[in-house]
C-alpha cells in the first residue's frame, strides 16, 4: 500500500478493546489513589536517612508499578515496548501526543480517533485511523507523535498504534486512563527546575508582553497524577516572579528540605489566586537541566555558547555552526520548532566533527520567548555567556579585530565585570542581492547587498545574571538589578542579517512566525510593523522586483573573508559544502 493510500481515512473494528476499556476505567481510581499515597509517603519520609527511598525519575506508571514497563517484560517474544500516551495537546494545525517512553527513529505510526458521542464500549466499532504526520524524541526519555486534527464529530482524545498493528498492542489500554486532550490556548506546557524553584511555562495567563506582574496573583500546584480535579493537588506553593508566559514558584518545602533534584518528573500547574477559575490544565513535568547537561558538577563552564530556535533550516545550519565555531562558540542549543527537513541528521554530522550541538525538540508553536527562557536556564549551568541569534545572522569582525576565537575573546573581556551582563551588537539587513536561487556556497558568500541603516541588535548575556522573571523580547533579556548592557561599536563587530533572501526561501516566513508577540504575516494586523517586510501584504505573492529589493550598499566584507579563510586550497569548497567524511571544522 503506498503512502497516499495509507493516509486516507479507514474504519477499524476492534471488539477486544471493549473489554479493555471497561477494565481500565475501573482500574483508574485505584491507580490515582496509590500514586497519591506514594507521593506523600516519599516526601514526608524519604529523607537521606530513610530506608524507604523509591526512585521518582521515570515517567507514568513506572513510579507506581516499575515492573510493568521493563524492557524484558515487553520485549519478550520480540515485541516492542508499548506506546504509553501521557498527554495530548490540541495545537492550531495538528494534535500532539506526548509518550512517556522513547520510540525508535524511523518507526511509522497511525493515529486512532473515536466518535465524540456513543456508548463507551461501542466507540471502538467506529474508530477512524490515519497515518501520523511525524514522530520525534522529546526531552531525554520521551517521544512525541504529531497527528492530523480530528475530523468533525470525532474526539481529540486520540490514541496511537504502530502502523498495521492492533490498538490493544499495549498502548491503548494505558492511554485510556487519561482520555483527554488539552487546548493549546490554555495549558501549562513546560516546567524547569532552577535551584529551589520551578519555572513554569503556560498559555492562557493573558499577561501583557514585555513587563512583569505581581507574583502574588499566582500559585503553583504539584501532583504525580493528571490534574483532573481540584482535590488532586498534593502541594501548593507561592509564586515568586511572573511575566509573559512564565511563572516562577517555590518548590514544596518538604522537597526543598531534602534533595531538590528529586523534583524531576513531578507534574505542576498554575492558578490565579483572586479568581474562582480552576488551575490550568497541565502536560508539564519538572525537568532538571543539571541532570542532562554536558558539564559535570564542578567542571569549568564553556565561555561562549549559542541558542537559536528554528523551523526547517537544516540546509543552513552547517554554515552557521561551522563559521561561528571558528569565531569561538563552544556549545550549541538548537531548539527545533517542528522541523521535518532532517535537522537531526545535520546535528549528528556536526557532532561527528566535534561541534557540540544539542537539538532540543520544542513542539510548542508561537512560544519563542518562553523557549529562550527555557534555554537560558539550561545554559546557566554550562555557559558563562550565551548568545540568542538566528541561523540567518552571522557575526562579522573587521580585519583589525578578526581572528580565530575572536568573538569569544570579545565577549570574555566582560566576564569579570562587576556590572555588565549583556553585550549587544547591531545588525545590517541584507537583501536578495540580485539572486533568484539559493546561493550554493552559502549565505555569507551569496548575499552581498544590504540596507544602509542598521536595524535592531542581538545579544550575548550572562545567564546567571538574568532577572528572575526571565523576561525577554527575543533580542534581549531583562537583567538582574545592578547589572547593565554594553553596546559593541560597529567598527568592532556587526551582525550580517541575511533577512531578505531569494523568494523561495523567504516565503517560508509566511507560514508562521515563532515569536509569541509578533503577528503572523498572513494575519491582517500590524501591517506597518518592522517585523514585516516593507512593501509586502499578507499573502505570499512574489513581487516582480523582489531580487532587487533591499539593496542600498554593496558589502562584500564577510564574503571576502570567508573565501580567503575557509575555502579549500585544492577544490575551492567551503567546509559546509563538503560531506562529514571530508569536511574540517577548522579553517586552513
From TrEMBL:
Membrane topology designation: Single-pass membrane protein
Transmembrane segments: 21-45
Entry's family note: Belongs to the glycosyltransferase 92 family.
GO cellular component terms given for this protein: cytoplasm; membrane
InterPro entries registered for this protein in UniProt: Glyco_transf_92
Name of the protein in question: Glycosyltransferase family 92 protein
The organism of origin for this protein: Linum tenue
Pfam family, one: Glyco_transf_92
Enzyme class: transferase
Entry keywords, A to Z: Glycosyltransferase, Membrane, Transferase, Transmembrane, Transmembrane helix
PANTHER family in UniProt: GLYCOSYLTRANSFERASE FAMILY 92 PROTEIN (PTHR21461), GLYCOSYLTRANSFERASE FAMILY 92 PROTEIN RCOM_0530710 (PTHR21461:SF16)
Localization terms from the record: Membrane
Any one GO molecular-function label of the UniProt entry: glycosyltransferase activity
E.C. no: 2.4.1.-
Amino acid at each position: 500500500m503506498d503512502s497516499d493510500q495509507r493516509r486516507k481515512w479507514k474504519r477499524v473494528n476492534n471488539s477486544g478493546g471493549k473489554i479493555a476499556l471497561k477494565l481500565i476505567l475501573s482500574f483508574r481510581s485505584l491507580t490515582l489513589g496509590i500514586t497519591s499515597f506514594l507521593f506523600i509517603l516519599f516526601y514526608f519520609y524519604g529523607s537521606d536517612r530513610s530506608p524507604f527511598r523509591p526512585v521518582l525519575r521515570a515517567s507514568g506508571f513506572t513510579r507506581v508499578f516499575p515492573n510493568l514497563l521493563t524492557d524484558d517484560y515487553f520485549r519478550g517474544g520480540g515485541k516492542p515496548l508499548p506506546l504509553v500516551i501521557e498527554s495530548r495537546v490540541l495545537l492550531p494545525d495538528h494534535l500532539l501526543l506526548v509518550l512517556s517512553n522513547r520510540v525508535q527513529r524511523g518507526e511509522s505510526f497511525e493515529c486512532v480517533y473515536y466518535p465524540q458521542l456513543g456508548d463507551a464500549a461501542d466507540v471502538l466499532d467506529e474508530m477512524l485511523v490515519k497515518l501520523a504526520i511525524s514522530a520525534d524524541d522529546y526531552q531525554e526519555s520521551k517521544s512525541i507523535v504529531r497527528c492530523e486534527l480530528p475530523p468533525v464529530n470525532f474526539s481529540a482524545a486520540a490514541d496511537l498504534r504502530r502502523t498495521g498493528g492492533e490498538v490493544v498492542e499495549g498502548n491503548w489500554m494505558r492511554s485510556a486512563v487519561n482520555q483527554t486532550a488539552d487546548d493549546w490556548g490554555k495549558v501549562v506546557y513546560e516546567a524547569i527546575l532552577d535551584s529551589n524553584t520551578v519555572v513554569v511555562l503556560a498559555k492562557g495567563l493573558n499577561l501583557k508582553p514585555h513587563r512583569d506582574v505581581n507574583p502574588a496573583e499566582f500559585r503553583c500546584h504539584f501532583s504525580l497524577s493528571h490534574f483532573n480535579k481540584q482535590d488532586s493537588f498534593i502541594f501548593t506553593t507561592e509564586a515568586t516572579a511572573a511575566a509573559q508566559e512564565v511563572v516562577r514558584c517555590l518548590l514544596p518545602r518538604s522537597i526543598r528540605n531534602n534533595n531538590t533534584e528529586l523534583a524531576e518528573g513531578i507534574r505542576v500547574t498554575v492558578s490565579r489566586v483572586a479568581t474562582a477559575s480552576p488551575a490550568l490544565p497541565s502536560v508539564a513535568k519538572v525537568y532538571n537541566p543539571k541532570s542532562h547537561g554536558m558539564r559535570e558538577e564542578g567542571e569549568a563552564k564553556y565561555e561562549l555558547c549559542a541558542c537559536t530556535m528554528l523551523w526547517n533550516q537544516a540546509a543552513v545550519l552547517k554554515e552557521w555552526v561551522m563559521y561561528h565555531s571558528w569565531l569561538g562558540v563552544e556549545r550549541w542549543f538548537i531548539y527545533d520548532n517542528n522541523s521535518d527537513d532532517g535537522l537531526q541528521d545535520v546535528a549528528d554530522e556536526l557532532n561527528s566533527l566535534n561541534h557540540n550541538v544539542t537539538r532540543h525538540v520544542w513542539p510548542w508553536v508561537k512560544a519563542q520567548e518562553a523557549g529562550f527562557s527555557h534555554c537560558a536556564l539550561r545554559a546557566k549551568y554550562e555557559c558563562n555567556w550565551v548568545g540568542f541569534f538566528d541561523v540567518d545572522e552571522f557575526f562579522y569582525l573587521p580585519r583589525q579585530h578578526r581572528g580565530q576565537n575572536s568573538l569569544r575573546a570579545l565577549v570574555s573581556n566582560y566576564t569579570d565585570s562587576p556590572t555588565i551582563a549583556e553585550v549587544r551588537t547591531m545588525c545590517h539587513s541584507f537583501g536578495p542581492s540580485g539572486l533568484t536561487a539559493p546561493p550554493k556556497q552559502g549565505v555569507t558568500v551569496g548575499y552581498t547587498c544590504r540596507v544602509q541603516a542598521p536595524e535592531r541588535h542581538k545579544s550575548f548575556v550572562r545567564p546567571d545574571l538574568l532577572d528572575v522573571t526571565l523576561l525577554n523580547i527575543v533580542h534581549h533579556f531583562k537583567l538582574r538589578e545592578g547589572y547593565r548592557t554594553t553596546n559593541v561599536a560597529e567598527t568592532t563587530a556587526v551582525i550580517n542579517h541575511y533577512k531578505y533572501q531569494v523568494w523561495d526561501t523567504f516565503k517560508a516566513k509566511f507560514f508562521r512566525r515563532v515569536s509569541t508577540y509578533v503577528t503572523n504575516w498572513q494575519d491582517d494586523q500590524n501591517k506597518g510593523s518592522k517585523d514585516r517586510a516593507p512593501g509586502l501584504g499578507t499573502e505570499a505573492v512574489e513581487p516582480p522586483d523582489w531580487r532587487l529589493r533591499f539593496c542600498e550598499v554593496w558589502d562584500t566584507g564577510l564574503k571576502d573573508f570567508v573565501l580567503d579563510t575557509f575555502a579549500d586550497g585544492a577544490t575551492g569548497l567551503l567546509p559546509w559544502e563538503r560531506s562529514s567524511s571530508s569536511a574540517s571544522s577548522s579553517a586552513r
